[in-house]
Specification:
797 residues, mainly alpha, five-stranded parallel sheet, two-stranded antiparallel ribbon, 7 strands, 62% helix, disordered N terminus
């Protein structure tokens, strides 16, 4: 069963859009006929018995009463679906207008040569006497092949058939952006190059069904797409990658520090007992979808290739004389000169200005840093004496010094003035080479600023800038500073900050504080806050209140709320109520909704329909769906097919699949194969796997090893392990050792444990005690306990 595909957006209504409406024709005709037929029968002169005509008239009326609301509900749903589709298409059109174009069209990879557009660092200028080198680009030095090129281009070639995501990880000015550009130009020159400026643009393109076939999605500085108010969702990336018939290549770059930070769960807060939401969840899942390539220090082979190009590009020869200072890409970007200007400054106030800008960026301030922020933070890096002797023009002189190029020509400088209007300076951008530079000789040697400096930055910044500042503090686990920055932003009606404050307080166990901020965000129509308020009420037992918030959030398009609302209705037995919400979430390529729809259809006995949804989710690399498909095939007797799906799911880390695959191999007599998968699941703290390992060792005669696994699983609360451990001790004659484990299982209402306790007491001659446990088990429906009671009664007659 192939995954559903979207039609190319060519302006023509495709079969996928027509089919739901055509499906209405039958019900509509039925309503028309059933409405007209009774009148016709009553007015006609057909020689039919009156009782038959009356019956048909009555039956027609009943059917009309039933069918009419169903048709109306279906029509309303389809109308809403069409409206949403139209809105998404309009968003996609708007997103397309925000993309860089060439002669009004999305450019091909081979046609994009603008260094600034690609966000490649500015290079040192060509020497003024570079005679014979007129054909060289003034912006892009000759590319020196990297060791990673072959593997990177092979990966791109392989993924060009079905799509994929590659990510280059390396420090600032390590050459990762140029490496990525040269790779796509070599492998995919005729593909279109989409260069979105933010995650919202990507989301709108995908949701609106924009035609991305044979396109490269340029995600340079990937961390910018994974943070901020409009983060790139893992579901969006999966949706892009799932449509293998319309291959898209995502290629991104990221600093190692950002990569590790975004892969770290953020739900650990000051309150260790908190159970907060992980703001990094989507970022981590997106990064896990990428094939990673690392660029670090330059190898001897790379330097040798650079040597061969010195006669081609004089800039390469110019920097090779100083190869011991940094990598080639850093030197071509003037990194040593920038670092020297900062570290060995002959202007102490200029150095403080650069340091202030570097620290502001490390605190999460947006790139354009206002002069007021730089001025105030500069005081933190000057002594009292230095502040006292500064003249009135110190700031203007220092900024001019920091903005001066480090070369006799060109524009590479520690700071650069930026502004929206001509002649207007809105702020200053600091070179990311300096932001990323950490060394004992640097004016600030630590990558993470002190809490005091972080708070000072938030005090000085605009409320809008406080949103990313708070996020950076939160990811750095400085929750007090994060709360301070977000509160400044939230007080100025930055809704994302209010939502984030709720997340932070929820993680700290302050549910009332979280509720207040989420209420404030919900009042501003933030769907995620509405969903979280629903979750709070659900946890408090107020299901009707929860349903109200979920309904409101789901109506506003929140996927999580659609899932929650569907699950609530499903648990209430309202399958028809749950179905449309999960369908709507599945339309947005949410694999959890696909899983749920498969489960719903399975419960209704429609195994083929269930398999179709699970197949679609499996095509989107959802491991749980793969496991379900394996179970479906097993139940149909196709053990080899089942094993294939379980293997694929287990390889992707699905615990249920590891258990199923281990059980299959165990039944096949492959104990070593079973052991490997159960061990992997046990390493993930799955107690069922631990219990199974105990059973396997018991079968091999290793009773002590078996007891160890059963003990570990039982200590963690596994009922089966309690039964197994108790049975082992009982067989060893240790009745007192067996008793507490069976008692613990019986406390969890396990009738087998009750039966065993009755047997134990009977063995000890305690007939009344045995009767009590057997009676309790029999009352709970245990047939063996009922048999034991009967035998006991006969024995006492």
């Amino acid at each position: 069963m192939a995954a559903a595909r979207e039609a190319v957006n060519d302006g023509v209504m495709g079969w996928g859009k027509l089919r739901p409406w055509l499906a209405l024709i039958g019900p509509v005709l039925a309503v028309v006929l059933l409405t007209a037929a009774p009148a016709g029968l009553k007015s006609g002169e057909l020689p039919w018995p009156k009782w038959l005509v009356a019956g048909l008239v009555a039956g027609g009326g009943v059917l009309v009463a039933v069918w009419t609301p169903l048709v109306k509900a279906r029509t309303d749903a389809l109308t809403a679906r069409t409206t949403r589709a139209t809105e998404r298409e309009a968003q996609a059109e708007g997103a397309l207008t925000r993309l860089p174009t060439l002669k009004g069209k999305i450019p091909l990879v081979q046609d994009v040569t603008d260094r600034a557009l690609l966000n490649i660092h500015e290079a040192i200028p060509l020497p003024t006497d570079s005679v014979g080198h007129q054909g060289l680009s003034a912006e892009l030095p000759t590319y020196v092949p990297r060791d990673v090129d072959a593997d990177l281009r092979t990966a791109l070639e392989a993924r060009s058939k079905s799509g994929g995501f590659v990510l280059l990880v390396g420090p600032a000015a390590s050459g990762k952006t140029r490496c990525a550009y040269e790779a796509i130009r070599a492998v995919l020159p005729r593909w279109r190059l989409f260069m979105p400026g933010d995650a919202a643009t990507v989301t709108e393109l995908v949701a609106g069904g924009a035609d991305l076939k044979h396109s490269v999605l340029w995600l340079n500085e990937t961390q910018d797409f994974l943070t901020g108010p409009d983060r790139l969702k893992a579901a969006t990336v999966r949706r892009i990658l799932a449509d293998t018939n319309r291959p898209v290549i995502l290629i991104g770059t990221i600093w190692p520090t950002s990569y590790e930070q975004l892969r770290t769960p953020t739900d650990s807060t000051d309150n260790e007992g908190g159970d907060g939401e992980d703001l990094n969840k989507d970022a981590r899942e997106v990064l896990e979808l990428a094939r990673r390539f690392s660029l670090g220090t330059w190898s001897d082979q790379e330097w040798a290739r650079a040597e061969e190009l010195t006669s081609v590009d004089p800039r390469i020869g110019q920097v090779l004389r100083h190869r011991d200072q940094a990598g080639l890409a850093q030197m071509l970007s003037a990194a040593p000169e920038l670092i020297h200007r900062w570290e060995q400054a002959d202007n102490i106030y200029g150095q403080a200005v650069i340091t202030a800008a570097v620290v502001a960026r490390r605190c999460g301030h947006p790139p354009a840093i206002p002069e007021t922020v730089i001025e105030a933070l500069s005081h933190e890096f000057l002594t009292g004496a230095q502040r006292a002797i500064a003249d009135a023009g110190w700031l203007a002189e220092s900024l001019a010094w920091a903005c001066r190029s480090v070369h006799h020509s060109g524009g590479i400088a520690p700071l650069q003035a930026v502004g929206e209007a001509i002649g207007q300076v809105d702020g200053y951008e600091v070179s990311d080479i300096l932001v990323d530079h950490v060394a004992p000789s640097a004016p600030v040697s630590d990558q993470q600023p002190t809490p005091r400096v972080w708070r000072r930055t938030a005090e000085l910044a605009t409320p809008q800038a406080c949103l990313p500042i708070g996020s950076a503090a939160y990811f750095a686990r400085l929750t007090s500073e994060a709360a301070f920055a977000w509160q400044r932003a939230a007080d100025a009606a930055v809704i994302e900050a209010a939502f984030n404050l709720g997340i932070l307080l929820d993680g700290q166990g302050d549910l009332e504080g979280a509720r207040r901020w989420w209420q404030r965000a919900a009042d501003a129509e933030e769907p995620r806050a509405m969903n979280n308020l629903g979750n709070l009420l659900r946890d408090e037992g107020d299901l009707e209140g929860a349903r109200g918030w979920w309904q409101r959030a789901a109506d506003a398009g929140d996927i999580e709320a659609m899932l929650s609302l569907g699950a609530h209705l499903y648990r209430q037995g309202d399958l028809e109520g749950a179905r449309p919400w999960w369908l709507r979430a599945a339309d947005a390529e949410d694999t959890r909704a696909m899983l749920n729809l498969g489960t719903l259809l399975r419960d209704e006995g429609d195994l083929e329909g269930a398999g179709g949804w699970w197949q679609r989710a499996a095509d989107a690399e959802e491991p749980s769906a793969m496991n379900n498909l394996g179970t479906l095939l097993r139940d149909e007797g196709d053990l080899e097919g089942a094993r294939g799906w379980w293997q694929r799911a287990a390889d992707a880390g699905d615990i249920e699949a590891m258990l199923s695959l281990g059980a299959h191999l165990y039944r096949q007599g492959d104990l070593e194969g079973a052991r490997g998968w159960w061990q992997r699941a046990a390493d993930a703290e799955d107690t069922r796997a631990m219990n199974n390992l105990g059973t396997l060792l018991r079968d091999e005669g290793d009773l002590e090893g078996a007891r160890g696994w059963w003990q570990r699983a039982a200590d963690a609360g596994d009922i089966e392990a309690m039964l197994s451990l108790g049975a082992h001790l009982y067989r060893q004659g240790d009745l007192e050792g067996a008793r507490p484990w069976w008692l613990r299982a019986a406390d969890a209402e396990d009738t087998r444990a009750m039966l065993n306790l009755g047997t134990l007491l009977s063995t000890q001659g305690d007939t009344e005690g045995a009767r009590g446990w057997w009676q309790r088990a029999a009352d709970a429906g245990d047939a063996d306990a009922a048999t034991a009671l009967t035998a006991l009664a006969r024995g006492t007659e």
